[in-house]
Amino acid sequence: MMRAVKQLLRAIKRSAQLAEQLAEMVDDEMWKQQLALYLEDIQRQYELWQYIHHLLAGAYEESGEEKTAKASVAGLVHALCCNELEKGMLCQKASEKLSGAARKAADQSLQQAIQYSRLFFTMMQTQLAPQIER
Q: DSSP letters along the chain, please?
């Protein structure tokens, strides 16, 4: 159980790093706004899962900074989409083993992961479609 929570915290942190990089590269205001909302949600998710980790282990998870390689817009969007799918699977795994409020948090995080994977898939389509047509 703790392993899934730790993996989820790492995935959330990785998502935040990727989204911050992407926000610096995207020119479209609509996507900038979507990314700003995403970053707010991801911060709340991180704090929530840190709290759940604290409840389960008696301490907050201390994870080091992961280095994310610089990538193109398409590469970052693809990585974010895949990372959201991974988070969804980890939330499902956690939900099966948790109960009460922690289970509800896992289920809500799963729904958000599905929602954001759709958002990044849509972004991938709109960003990559012009490149594919060339």
A: -HHHHHHHHHHHHHHHHHHHHHHHH---HHHHHHHHHHHHHHHHHHHHHHHHHHHHHSS----PPPP-----HHHHHHHHHHHHHHHHHHHHHHHHH--HHHHHHHHHHHHHHHHHHHHHHHHHHHHHHHHHH-
